[in-house]
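go over my protein:
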Amino acid sequence: MLRLLVFLLFVALLEPIQSFSIVPNSFSKATLTLHHPRKTTVKRTGALRLGADSNDSGQSDETKKSVFDGILSFRQKFSQASAEGFGTKAKNAAKTMQVGDVVVPLCGNLEMRQILANRGVYPGVEYEICSLEIESTKFNSMDELTTAQKDNVTARIKPAYKLRDYLERSDWPVEVNPMQDVPLWLSKTTFEAGTMLGTLGLSFAYLSMAAVVAFFVRFAVIPSPSMQPSLNPGDVVLVTRTIWPFKPSVGDVILFDPPMELNSVVANSAFAQENGAALPTKGQQFLKRVVAKEGEYVGVKNSEPYVDLTGKSGNLQEGSPKKFRVDIVGAYAQPAAFSESSWDRSPEELGKNQWFVAGDNGFRSVDSRVWGPLDGHYIFGSARWVIWPMQDFGPIKEGQIYDIEK
């Protein structure tokens, strides 16, 4: 069960990362069907009705009745179990058991559990009360006895259903003193209600954990070589959501939705249209490295992004060298696909919550060189680790970003 939940969680978190031409995601719908444990039989009287409408109506009525019976049964069981108590406050059914009742023994002591199992009393298994007696005197209910007499009762019990072969015995029913041999007996109703509540609680805990993890964490598959040599096609990376007041830093590899500016650039590119370049669609995401952050002056020269760290020339003392940050990514494979300003332009200041991003492999990457600054609201988070394949497991390699003086 746990493995299935982990697998489903992994699939839910898996995100495709796109480079330029993108394949839309596909979604599947899951249907949750509730089945009532009892088979509902509906007897029909009168004339036989023919036709699909009559059959569909009858099946619909049966389904509604089955669901209603299931809800009513659960409500009744829960009400009875609430009256008897749950957990450590549960009422001990040994004090009121009757012949024909189905009860469940419980024991938390491992040593005592083994002793009981050797006698054929398996904690958590439903048993039917076959007889109650004191020194060969039989009676039908513990309610007929005094408190002192109840301590001397011998009950003959057998499983209420067939057990696995290695648990079956040839001497059913076995004898047990309900008041002294077993710490706690629960009625079948209380046991089923408690099990149901425990299952619901565990399911809710798993779903809550999955929801929290899905919000903060995502797995992403690299489909293209645009981030080589740091990331190769087929690599699976772990991405963590960026939450205010934390922001991506220079050098971080970030996951983000394609900006609207990219759609405009592709739509206006005759070369891209002639070669069948597809526009990004909703749900598709990119993975690039941060070259510059808000407030910095970033430009492009010979296809290489660079940041003027001295800012405005007025802040530079006479004779002092200028400081730059450069990202060695290389020229794009088809520079004619986009305007010349994509590959050569003067530094411009990034506005508030704007970032300049580029792929490590500029030969295959369409990035901020083409569409300009990336607005922060497109960013999901930062990729930190490669988790697959195992030979690449570990932190994502650093890009070729250097600080120089000139």
Remarks:
- The longest helix spans residues 52-84.
- The first strand starts at residue 14 and ends at 16.
- The two ends are 61 Å apart (CA to CA).
